[in-house]
């Protein structure tokens, strides 16, 4: 119950975060940073709560992963809409996540999601460009520091684009290894 509430909180934060990235000025940068950090904390806490209270389940895991997917993809799409990043990474995340779900349930005929090493770490790191771009928007930072942080965000997006492509390829050849 608590785990699902934490996941639902993150789901509820997805649209405001995406909107804040797509239309700068809709929300203060400090509020955006706080909301993203809250979402990340809820992502860490929901799994811990599920295990602690004995409520972990494949449905809960699916809810968590779908929520993460919606949160990061919509936020990255907001960044793309604002012209801060290209649209390739959000598109690739849709492909990778679809492949993840379809492979798990239909190809491998599992009753829960079948994670891959690279896909798991991509999922963790998809949150970090959101942190960097929201920090770069803070008006209290010197312009040069904001530009350095923004450049770091762009480099991370390119790295994640490459690792997402690698994850898609790895999942595509996984059945051949099995």
How is this structure best described in words?
The chain has 178 residues and is mainly α. It has one domain (2-177): Four Helix Bundle (Hemerythrin (Met), subunit A). Helix content is 80%, strand content 0%. It is built from 7 helices and no strands. The longest helix is centred in the last third of the chain and has 35 residues, at 143-177. The chain starts with a helix and ends with a helix. GO terms for molecular function: phosphotransferase activity, for other substituted phosphate groups. Keywords: Membrane, Signal, Transferase, Transmembrane, Transmembrane helix. The chain crosses the membrane at residues 69-102, 123-143, 155-174.
Task: Compose a concise summary of this entry.
This protein is mostly helical and 178 residues long. It is built from seven helices and no strands.
For the record, what is the CATH homologous superfamily label?
CDP-alcohol phosphotransferase transmembrane (TM) domain
Let me know the largest β-sheet.
Answer: none
What structural class do you assign from the helix and strand content?
mainly alpha
Gyration radius, to the nearest Å? 17 Å
Organism: OM182 bacterium BACL3 MAG-120619-bin3
Keywords: Membrane, Signal, Transferase, Transmembrane, Transmembrane helix
Transmembrane segments: 69-102, 123-143, 155-174
InterPro entries: CDP-OH_P_trans, CDP-OH_PTrfase_TM_dom, CDP_ALCOHOL_P_TRANSF_CS
Set down the secondary structure blueprint.
Blueprint: H1 2-22, H2 29-52, H3 58-81, H4 88-107, H5 117-125, H6 127-136, H7 143-177
Helix pairs in contact: 1-2, 1-3, 2-3, 2-6, 3-4, 3-6, 4-7, 5-7, 6-7
């Amino acid at each position: 119950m608590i785990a699902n509430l934490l996941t639902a909180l993150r789901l509820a934060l997805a649209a405001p975060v995406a909107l804040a990235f797509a239309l700068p000025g809709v929300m203060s940068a400090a509020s955006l940073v706080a909301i993203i950090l809250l979402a990340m904390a809820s992502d860490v806490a929901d799994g811990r709560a599920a295990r602690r209270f004995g409520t972990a389940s494949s449905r809960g895991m699916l809810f968590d992963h779908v929520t993460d997917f919606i949160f990061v993809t919509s936020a990255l799409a907001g960044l793309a809409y604002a012209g801060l990043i290209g649209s390739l990474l959000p598109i690739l995340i849709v492909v990778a996540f679809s492949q993840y779900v379809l492979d798990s349930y239909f190809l491998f005929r599992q009753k829960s999601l079948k994670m891959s090493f690279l896909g798991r770490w991509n999922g963790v790191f998809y949150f970090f460009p959101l942190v960097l771009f929201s920090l770069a928007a803070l008006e209290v930072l010197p312009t040069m520091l904001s530009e350095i942080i923004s450049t770091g965000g762009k480099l991370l997006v390119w790295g994640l684009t490459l690792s997402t492509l690698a994850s898609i390829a790895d999942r595509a050849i996984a059945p051949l290894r099995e």
